[in-house]
């Protein structure tokens, strides 16, 4: 099969969908791997490394898009790429369609089959859930704690609080909303930096797991509306780590709640790819990562793992390569038929939206407009 990899062109996105090691594994089993010139440079992988791995370098994106039967990306196509979508290629990437009606419309109109990393389920029994979202969620969660600590500094708009404090001075209060992969990793790093950490979670089973995992090093509380409001009002950093797979994130932090927060507190909304969990959240970039609403600093970078592209690219390929191999080795239809978890990743095919949560989110967005 012809497997294509294009350069990511979303602002400040330097990840690439496949490492040279991944390209070697595909080429070694007889597949034709096409890599756009320079696609890996932002992650530290040269064209020569891909050639040495058995891939072919194609000078421009159009050549890869038109030739590939399976097109690998990291981020969703942006408007300038919509014209490259075609029914003869399967797109395999992060999509987050619930927050992107324009892209959804483009995919439907193109007739392409679009498989979203973030809704593929199952995988390794030791790592159930969303196996292709998990590695980037781990990276984003860890970066969220770092971002909170960084932007708490006065020169960057924060409260001027050192996240770990010093002897005789209290550490920062960090509230993590959601105890999944993002929230757990954010809490781990925040605890490691010496912050006073509270995790809010709604699943009783997960609350028990978190209590055992952190063993008293973080407070673990049921996330009901009153507790959420109380904890957010006393926080120096709030990390939004909620996820409803394939659907828009619930707006848990209202505009009214900002008025009760500490002046120059920081919100790090990791859920921004799915629309954000704060009413006042809007996507930002690494080049211009923050803005202020009601004296609360908002960090809403929509591709946080893109800030560490070498680590992220390696982690992503580790997770996606078995699925890429299955699609290439068996063919798209056979691979989907053989793996219900991979089938769950198909968001759009044959001009139709196949994930109910995506359709519901888009209907709600258009009704609100």
From TrEMBL:
Which EC class is this protein assigned?
oxidoreductase
| Record-linked PROSITE patterns | ALADH_PNT_2 (PS00837)
This entry carries the following GO cellular component terms, namely: plasma membrane
UniProtKB keywords:
NAD, Oxidoreductase
- Report whether tRNA processing shows up as a keyword of the record: no
Alanine dehydrogenase/pyridine nucleotide transhydrogenase NAD(H)-binding domain sequence ranges: 152-300
Q: Alanine dehydrogenase/pyridine nucleotide transhydrogenase N-terminal domain spans which residues?
A: 4-140
Which Gene3D superfamilies does the record associate with it?
NAD(P)-binding Rossmann-like Domain
Question: From the UniProt record, which GO molecular function terms apply?
Answer: alanine dehydrogenase activity
Which GO BP terms apply? L-alanine catabolic process
Which InterPro entries has this protein been placed in?
Answer: Ala_DH, Ala_DH/PNT_CS2, AlaDH/PNT_N, AlaDH/PNT_NAD(H)-bd, NAD(P)-bd_dom_sf
Q: Does the keyword Oxidoreductase apply?
A: yes
Query: EC?
Result: 1.4.1.1
Q: Which family does it belong to?
A: Belongs to the AlaDH/PNT family.
Give the PANTHER family listed for this entry. Answer: ALANINE DEHYDROGENASE
Task: Name the chain's protein.
Answer: alanine dehydrogenase
- The species this protein belongs to is freshwater metagenome
């Amino acid at each position: 099969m012809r497997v294509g990899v294009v350069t990511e062109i979303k602002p400040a996105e330097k990840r690439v969908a496949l490492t040279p090691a991944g390209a070697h594994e595909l080429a070694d089993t007889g597949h034709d791997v096409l890599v756009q010139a320079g696609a890996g440079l932002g992650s530290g992988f040269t064209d020569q490394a891909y050639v040495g791995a058995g891939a072919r370098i194609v000078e421009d994106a159009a050549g890869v898009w038109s030739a590939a039967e399976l097109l690998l990306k990291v981020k969703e196509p942006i408007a300038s790429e919509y014209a490259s979508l075609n029914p003869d290629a399967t797109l395999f990437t992060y999509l987050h369609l619930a927050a992107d009606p324009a892209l959804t419309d483009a995919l439907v109109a193109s007739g392409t089959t679009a498989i979203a990393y973030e809704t593929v389920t199952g995988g390794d029994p030791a790592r159930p859930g969303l196996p292709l979202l998990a590695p980037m969620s781990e990276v984003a969660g860890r970066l969220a704690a770092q971002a909170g600590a960084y932007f708490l500094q006065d020169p960057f708009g924060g409260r001027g609080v050192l996240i770990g404090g010093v002897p005789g001075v209290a550490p920062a209060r960090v509230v993590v909303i959601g105890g999944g992969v993002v929230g757990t990793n954010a809490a781990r790093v925040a605890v490691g930096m010496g912050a006073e950490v509270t995790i809010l979670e709604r699943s009783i089973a997960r609350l028990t797991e978190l209590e055992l995992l952190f063993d008293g090093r973080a407070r673990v509380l049921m996330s009901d509306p009153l507790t959420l409001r109380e904890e957010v009002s006393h926080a120096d950093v709030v990390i939004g780590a909620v996820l409803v797979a394939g659907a828009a994130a619930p707006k848990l932090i209202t505009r009214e709640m900002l008025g009760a927060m500490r002046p120059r507190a920081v919100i790090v909304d990791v859920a921004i790819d799915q629309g954000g969990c704060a009413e006042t959240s809007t996507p930002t970039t690494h080049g211009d990562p923050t803005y202020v609403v009601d004296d609360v600093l908002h960090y809403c970078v929509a591709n946080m793992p893109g800030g560490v592209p070498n680590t992220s690219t390696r982690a992503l390929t580790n997770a996606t390569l078995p699925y890429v191999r299955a699609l290439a080795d068996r063919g798209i239809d056979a691979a989907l038929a053989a793996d219900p978890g991979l089938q769950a990743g198909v968001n759009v095919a044959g001009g139709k939206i196949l994930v109910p949560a995506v359709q519901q989110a888009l209907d709600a967005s258009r009704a609100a407009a």
